[in-house]
Structures are given as C-alpha cells and as structure tokens.
C-alpha cells in the first residue's frame, strides 16, 4: 500500500454494497468513489447471493470494492480485481477469510456494530419477561382483564429489577453496553469472561449468585452449550435466564427441563438454531418465556455504525495504513 498521493485507487473506487449503508459514514464512502448500494434486506422476496451470484453482480457493476452482510463472499469473488472486501459483521463469517487472504484481498469487519442495539434488547426482554408484559398486553386486547374473577394486580405482581443482581456471561462490546444499562436500573452487576480482567467471577459462582443471567459470549468450541443441565441447576431457584446472543450457548433441552421443573423462574431468548422453533416445541406453550426472532441488532443505528467502520477502514487502506478493523492483517505483510 502507498500513500494517497500515489495510490491509483484514490477517488476511483467503485463500491458495490449489498449491505445497507446510512449515516455520516456514507458521505465518507461517497468521497472515496462511486457507491452502488442495493441492500439484501430491502428485497422482497429476500435475496441473498451465493459466491457466483455476488461475483457476477459485482463484475456487472464494475466494482473494485464489495461490502456485504449476508451474501457469500468466496470462490469466484476472489477472481475479481478487488481492492478490498467489507463484511458488516463483527465476525466476517460470510467471507472465506483464508481465500481472500490467499488472493491478496484485505477484508474489513464491523466489530461492536450492534452492541447498543443488542444490549437494549437484553434489558427490554428482562423487563418483558419479569413484568409479564406480553400476557398483560394480550389481556387488554382480548378484554380478559378481569377473567376468572381476579384483577391484574393479583396476577402480575413481580419483583423490581432495582436491587437485584444480574450476572453477565461475556464482557465484550455487547456485555459492556449491557453492563452500564443494568447498573442504571439500580442492579448490581457481576461478570464472567476469561478474556476480560474486570470480569473476574467464576462462572459457577456467578450462576449461584445472580437473580438474572444474561448471555453475551461468542459461540466457540469452548462456549458451545456452556449452559447445560448442570449449569442451569447451579442457578438460583426462580432465577431468570436471558440470551440475546446465540442459541449455541445453551442446551435447549436442558433449558426446557429447568423451566418445566420450576427451578428457573423465566427465560427470554432472541435466537434459535435454524432461526425458529418447530410448531410443537414446548417453549411455545410456556407463559414464563419471552421469545423474539433474532432482532437484537435490527436497528438503523447498527447500519450507521457499520457504514462508518467500512468508511474508516477503506480510508486507512487508501492511506497505506493498517485499519483497526482489518480481519486479515497478514495480507498487508510484504
């Protein structure tokens, strides 16, 4: 890479993005060249390119930069004369990183892009499941507020979150965004993360201490089914389990058993293997469970953050630098 005075790509980028772009970063991208944005998420029916389809579309657009979020970036894509690839994911799982590196193509990523959105949902789901908001909403809509001769004040009494302890499992970008939000509610926050020096609680001790356990770890071989039958049993009786991260962090059958037995008081989940539950799944009949379809990061602010990260990374590459969000820094080695 050379500096901006001699870099032949300066001002000549043709950026084709299948990821949504917005916010101040979009103006920066437009200052680097031509931006062609055709977001996958705006297509009806939904459109996700395979590698050949993405390569064909990028070639038709004359692109030398591809930014993608859901499309597969591999194989034929690397045969194009690309200056860079951007994946608007924290972990660029839609990109064959080894293949891009072998082709000499830098890959940018978007760490922490949805941290605030997911943290907000974790708080919202905690409130939703502990204060019985879905059931209460249904009662008003169905005119059953006084069903059975009782009143809502009897049916929906709950403990306040203020004064309770929340245990965060994982203290990365999302965990830290959740931490100050829970603290702002008056909750005591404890955390477990072997890679964060300020998250010093052992997992088993955290589970035994927390009134609410909120999952914010990445799924790795080390954390797959981290929450199993033994660990759910270590949680306090009546405790609440919240997972706005990934379904792979828990053994779903073990979670169902812990709820059905009454050991856990409630659960709130924003992700499932295969993105949904089968129609006969027992969770669907449990009124102490709140379910949402993987929407933690579904905010326009998330899109603005990843746009800025793509813009900053491309600007650094054009200047001959090493972007902080470069997923394959070895590609810049001589």
What does this structure look like?
This protein is an alpha/beta fold. It folds into 2 domains: 13-113 and 300-332, 3-Layer(aba) Sandwich (Rossmann fold), CATH 3.40.50.720; 115-291, NAD(P)-binding Rossmann-like Domain (Rossmann fold), CATH 3.40.50.720. 32% of the residues lie in helices and 13% in strands. The protein contains 11 helices and 11 strands. The chain has helices at residues 24-32, 51-61, 97-102, 115-130, 133-141, 152-155, 173-184, 203-209, 229-234, 252-260, 300-318; strands at residues 13-17, 33-37, 65-68, 84-87, 107-108, 165-169, 188-192, 212-215, 240-243, 266-269, 289-291. The strands form 2 sheets. A 6-stranded parallel β-sheet has the order 7-6-8-9-10-11, with helices on both faces. It has a 5-stranded parallel β-sheet with strand order 2-1-3-4-5. α1 links the parallel β1 and β2. α1 (24-32) runs parallel beside α11 and α4 (115-130) packs across α7 (173-184). The longest helix is centred in the C-terminal third of the chain and has 19 residues, at 300-318. The radius of gyration is 23 Å and the shape is elongated. The N and C termini lie close together (10 Å). The model is unreliable at 1-6 (pLDDT under 50).
């Amino acid at each position: 890479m050379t500096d901006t005075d001699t870099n032949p790509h300066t001002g000549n980028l043709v950026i084709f993005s299948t990821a949504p772009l917005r916010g101040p970063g979009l103006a920066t991208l437009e200052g680097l060249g031509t931006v062609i944005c055709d977001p996958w998420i705006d297509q009806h029916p939904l459109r996700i390119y395979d590698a050949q389809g993405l390569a064909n579309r990028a070639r038709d657009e004359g692109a030398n930069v591809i930014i993608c979020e859901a499309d597969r970036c591999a194989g034929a894509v690397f045969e194009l004369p690309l200056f860079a690839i951007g994946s608007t994911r924290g972990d660029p799982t839609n990109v064959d990183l080894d293949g891009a590196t072998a082709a000499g193509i830098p890959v940018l990523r978007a760490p922490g892009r949805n941290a605030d959105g997911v943290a907000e949902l974790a708080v919202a789901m905690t409130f939703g499941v502990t204060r019985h908001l879905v059931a209460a909403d249904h009662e008003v809509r169905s005119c059953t507020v006084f069903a059975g001769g009782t009143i809502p004040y009897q049916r929906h009494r709950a403990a306040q979150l203020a004064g309770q302890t929340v245990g965060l499992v994982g203290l990365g970008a999302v965990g830290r965004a959740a931490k100050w939000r829970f603290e702002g509610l008056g909750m005591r926050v404890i955390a477990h993360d072997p890679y964060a020096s300020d998250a010093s609680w052992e997992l088993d001790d955290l589970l035994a201490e927390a009134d609410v356990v909120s999952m914010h770890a990445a799924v790795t071989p080390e954390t797959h089914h981290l929450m199993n039958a033994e660990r759910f049993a270590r949680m306090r009786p009546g405790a609440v389990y919240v997972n706005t991260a990934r379904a792979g962090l828990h053994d779903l059958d073990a979670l169902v058993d812990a709820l059905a037995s009454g050991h856990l008081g409630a659960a709130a989940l924003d992700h499932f293997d295969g993105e949904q539950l089968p129609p006969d799944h027992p969770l669907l009949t449990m009124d102490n469970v709140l379910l949402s379809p993987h929407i933690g990061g579904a905010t326009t602010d998330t899109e603005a953050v990843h746009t800025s990260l793509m813009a900053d990374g491309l600007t650094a590459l054009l200047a001959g630098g090493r972007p902080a969000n470069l997923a394959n820094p070895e590609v810049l080695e001589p």
